[in-house]
Design goal:
mainly alpha; 22 helices; 0% strand; globular; CitT-rel; transmembrane; SLC13A/DASS; transmembrane helix
């Protein structure tokens, strides 16, 4: 049986690819023919990732094959590209996420926080926010955190408290907690380098332009805007989208009951917790002792395999991890080659000269806001990052924005722009379809929180990065 292919979705990629190829400069310029041809293939590949005639892994493989047939890459270069450390780090962190869910540690942490801080609704929101924050350190999949751990717990808790969309009582408690989880998940995705696979995609692309940022550098820059957001957003939502139930004394009893049901910590949970703590320590200090972030993720996964918390069968079932390993390796290989061939330096120099005389802070603000609101056009985090991040970063550098600052600010934006639409990412698609929050409320609240995020992460982020000496 032959699978159906959406042939119409190839039309736009072909138009962009062939069109740009035909526009190759004929006269000698600062950009050579090979660089321009690769740019045409790169753009066509990214457009195909958006129109999706085939899954991203397939479209990127087609793109790199065309680049090989046209002589831009050798097969040795292509195969070497699959050894990209950033792509492997993302995959390894996905396997760690599987360990969290399989061992049950994530749910236990959530129940404990609800038991300790769940007396009042606002306190319960902060408790659940803290759970997502802890999980984000080691689970780079916002889908895994929301779909696999947080939503089932919030849904069960809301129904236990008498808040059920099927009965028309969702505004009692569930609506507030569900939307709070959505926005908090966006915050925690940006707070840690390992909070979202897209973060590592962005910094991998930044690395191809000569910018290297560690786990600790990321956290240092994101800590203040991230913590401020975690404090402000639940309170803001409590005021503009208040739950009908303000006191939740039964939440503690519910959590205690759940903890009794799952019993004492299993050996798997204890190993997962120990491995998680070790990974955090090594991410913080590893650079000082010669262990980089990718190596830390390998160490963690090996420990989980040796101890039986994960099996090779579990790893093989993590299709998203293997999928992202392939397409991310290809995208980063193309990006790196564009840098080697001189395309990005030429691109940043050309656009930077057009912005000559404009203050670089203003340029960064414009780029940040444009990058944020362009997400209304993208139903995928990684697709937008793959399509726009490298180009936006080149423009910022060409306009004189300090390199590390530009890379971090645009990468942060790649997390908070998830607060835009019901289709912004997997968690939004899931939570917006549960019936707890109406479509009208979702758009309205997302717009309000989006403005708040820009004030905190752009305004506050610039001030904080000045304090820590990034500019």
């Amino acid at each position: 049986m032959i699978n159906k292919i959406n042939w119409k979705a190839f039309i736009l990629p072909l138009i962009f690819g062939i069109g740009l190829w035909l526009l190759t400069p004929l006269k000698p310029t600062d950009i050579n023919t090979a660089a321009w041809h690769l740019f045409a293939i790169f753009v066509a590949t990214i457009v195909a990732c958006i129109t999706k005639p085939l899954p991203m892994m397939a479209t990127t493989l087609i793109g790199i094959t065309i680049a090989t047939l046209t002589g831009i890459f050798t097969m040795d270069e292509v195969t070497a590209g699959f050894g990209n450390s950033t792509a492997w780090m993302v995959a390894m962190c996905m396997f760690m996420a599987a360990g969290f869910i399989k061992s049950g540690l994530g749910k236990r942490i959530a129940y404990l926080f609800v038991k300790l801080f769940g007396k009042r609704t606002l306190g319960l929101a902060y408790a659940l926010s803290a759970v997502d924050t802890v999980l984000a350190i080691g689970i780079p999949s916002n889908n895994a955190r929301v779909n696999g751990i947080m939503y089932p717990i919030i849904d069960n808790l809301a129904r236990e408290m008498g808040s059920d969309p099927k009965k028309g009582t969702q505004r009692k408690l569930g609506s507030f907690l569900i939307f709070n989880e959505y926005e908090v998940n966006n915050i925690t995705s940006g707070l840690f380098l390992t909070g979202l696979a897209g973060n590592m995609v962005a910094l991998g692309l930044a690395k191809t332009q000569g910018i290297t940022i560690s786990w600790l550098q990321w956290f240092a820059a994101a800590s203040v805007p991230g913590i401020l957001s975690l404090l402000i957003i639940p309170f803001l939502l409590y005021k503009i989208y208040p739950p009908e139930v303000k006191e939740t004394p039964n939440a503690r009893t519910w959590a205690d009951k759940r903890l009794n049901e799952i019993g004492k910590m299993t050996i798997s949970e204890k190993i997962m917790l120990t491995t998680f703590i070790l990974a955090i320590i090594l991410w913080l200090v590893g650079a000082k002792i010669g262990i980089d972030a990718t190596e830390v993720s390998f160490i963690a996964v090996v420990i989980l395999l040796i101890t039986g918390v994960l099996t090779t069968k579990d790893m093989l079932h993590e299709s998203f991890a293997w999928n992202i390993l392939v397409w991310l390796s290809v995208i980063m290989l193309m990006s790196q080659k564009l840098m080697i061939l001189g395309f990005f330096p030429w691109f940043s120099k050309t656009l930077g000269s057009m912005l000559h005389g404009m203050n670089w802070v203003l340029v960064l603000i414009i780029l940040f806001l444009a990058y944020f609101y362009l997400h209304y056009m993208f139903p995928s985090v990684s697709t937008q990052i793959s399509a726009l991040y490298a180009g936006f970063l080149s423009v910022a550098i060409g306009a004189g924005v300090p390199h590390t600052l530009a890379a971090l600010m645009l990468a942060f934006c790649g997390s908070i722009y998830l607060s835009t639409t019901p289709y912004s990412a997997g968690p939004a698609a899931l939570l917006s379809g549960t019936g707890y929050v109406s479509n009208k409320d979702w758009w309205k609240l997302s717009a309000i929180v989006g403005v708040t995020f820009n004030i905190i992460w752009l305004g506050g982020g610039l001030l904080w990065t000045k304090v820590i000496g990034l500019w």
